[in-house]
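Subject: complex prediction, re-run

Hi both,

The earlier run crashed halfway through, so I resubmitted it with identical inputs.
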Amino acid sequence: MASHSESIIREPLITGKDITYAQITNDVLRPVENMPGKAWWIGFSVASLGACLWVVAISYTFWNGIGAWGLNKTVGWAWDITGFVWWVGIGHAGTLISAILLLFRQNWRNSINRSAEAMTIFAVICAATYILAHMGRPWMALFSLPIPNQYGSLWVNFNSPLIWDVFAISTYFSVSLVFWYTGLLPDLATIRDRATGVRRKIYSVLSFGWTGSVKTWQRFETVCLILAGISTPLVLSVHTIVSMDFATSLEPGWHTTIFPPYFVAGAIFSGFAMVQTLLLVTRKVLGLENYITMFHIEAMNKIILLTGSIVGVAYLTEFFIAYYSGGEYEQYTFLNRFIGPYWWAGCMMYGCNVLMTQLMWFKKIRTNIPISWVLSIVVNIGMWFERFVIIVVSLHRDFVPSSWAMFYPTWVDVSVFIGSIGLFFTMFLLFIRVLPSIAMAEVKLILKSSSEQAKLKLIRDGHLDKEQVDYYKETLTTFDSVDITDYQKV
Amino acid sequence: MSSTKYILGLFADPDELMHGIDTLQKNSVPIYDVFTPMPIHGIEKKLGIKDSRLGYAAFMFGCLGGTTIFSMAYFMLVHDWPMNIGGKPAFAVPDLIPITFEWTVLFTAFGMTLTFFYATHLFPGRTPRVMDYRATDDRFVIAIDAKGNIPHDDITNLLKEAGAVEVKHNDRKYVSYE
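This time it finished cleanly. Structure:
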């Protein structure tokens, strides 16, 4: 501990002057230990209305069958699979932050991993509901599992990408849940030890008797590291497999080998955008500006810029390969995205995902909170349209012009989609109310090395020369939660 | 005779805790355990805790998962219900790569985590055996078994000299939740 400190030129990961271990606990647990504020209640009311809409729409679907949706014999996958792929994609950022950034020792993940992992769980739940609903007979869902059944030797078809999907999504959900919950144990113990009465009993059960002894910590870190190691290829495999639902078909617009990396990049892109959407509001409402700083926001914006650019390159590659393949159906499909009846969807996809994202090259935009928030929503809209374009626009005009058709969503389609967003936000708002939205133990770990006060201490103790101190003073103006006047003594 | 079971040195800073461990070890005071609100790197070497073998468990569970699904698929596709689809082989190995990978990961994650819970005696609803409530918040606690040790006042003084903000003489083994 004592020997480790970060370079002064690296921006602090925790801002604020006099943060202590106790203050970290108090700050993070404020929403958990106190009654929620007005903003939470407003958000929760709106989100739960959306969740109610979802219940109505999904019940209507189960009662009447998926004929309640706007599907037809040409467009057999539409808003449901669009919603499924969109939600699975959104989930990816959580695992990326918790696993890949952990392997790369990126300490800035410590402030955002808990919320991002929670977001993953909720997003995958939303995705799974789409798949169950799309089955038409959700009570038959067990038929997609390789378990003995009453029809004799009838097993699932392991050659089908749809079965790969079942394995991928269920594994992804369970592993993410295990990773998330194991990581929660030390923080649940903190809540338990501060609580009284019934709350103490509940958190006592949930925290599995965690004590924080050295041996437990050592093994806990081993488990987290190995889980990160296996989750990293897992997260890449999941969206690769989802993309194979399309890529292994012969459908023009789907049958393309770039889909796996393109889908993975798109997933990380939309996932980070959703993390940004959620955390920019959460940090403000819960007063967590010292822990989720401008550095975090900018870092996430940089990842959005990078993955958005990869997605842009994938779009260009798709176009080029359609042209280069010489396949007229393939070429028509891609032209149809711009000149067909769904041209507006194509424009939304390219505009939101490629053009708007490129604004992030400007530091002023990357570090502007309202613009970042709007752009994160724009990205998610764009990514929804990307899935819509791939699915509906490819399907609605395929090889046989006599079967060409348009897809028009019904009120049920729209309600299920809006409702799933409500469901997602309801779960997220409940999460920040009952569980710590920041991994306290992990943030405490970096307090002495990467915080603003650790850097100030270096200066005060005279470990740095004047140039470095001046540089540090200049960088202070870039943090949104502190003021240069706070540091006159420096 | 003293009823003290454990002497606890509560530190406010992890570096001072490390210093406290050094001091106690220099004076040959055996340490029962150390409790912290966050992981402290390097402390396990100081306390002589062996490297975790959970990695081996993870590997074994991974092998088990991969073998299980591969054998299941072989049994189902070749033995129990072979299908002739356009003359394609019943056991198309490349098609089994995704599911084999997924179950390898699934078994590794669950197997290793359950092994971790088993090895560290963690399970839902277990009564917590904490030495001090603040050990999961902002205090770094060294626990010393009071039995058969040098005079307790000497230990207290050693801890205080090392920077302990508080020293407690607990006459119960754990803080009770019952």
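The first strand of chain B starts at residue 6 and ends at 11.

- K.
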